[in-house]
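job 3f2a | input accepted
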Amino acid sequence: MSKQVANKLDKGISPKQFMDTMVRNKDTFVSLYDEFAWPNEEEKAFFESLNNRDDLRCLILMAEWCGDVVKNIPVVFRALEISGVPTEVLIKEEHQDTMEQFLTMGGEAVPIVIFADTGGYVLGQWGPRPAHVQEAMTAFKLANPDRAAADYQEKLAEARQEMGRRYGEGTGYQAVILKELRELISSF
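job 3f2a | predicted structure (188 res):
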């Protein structure tokens, strides 16, 4: 059965409203947003070319307390700003019904970037993090299904360290996000 978000279109807040009302992690988020730079003209041109499409809508399910939101969404905001794709933020805690439609390996993880057509039919989604970073969490969850295990938290901390290592230093990971978004959007 295909996913639908028609009931969520025009129910979110704008990216600017999200940034303006942030309390937690605002300085880091705004810094990554302000310091964003296109890795090349080809990527920028692709997102600019989306201005020729009027069939896309974007909903971003997220929360300001989430480290992956802080790291990844400034890039997504910048890419979508020049695309002309109407973009709305759905705060996870206020849209639990939507979160339940977009679980990651059975669990809640944000951000989830949802692309839909004008009728709310979901065309694709991205998130909660770049694929090469997510691989570390996927491997952890597959190897550690018992959340009550004595060493679960220790192994979770190790997985999070590995994810941090995979993000790397600096902002190189941002080009990966743009590439993944471009591949996704190109598929519909």
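job 3f2a | The chain has a mean pLDDT of 96.
job 3f2a | closed
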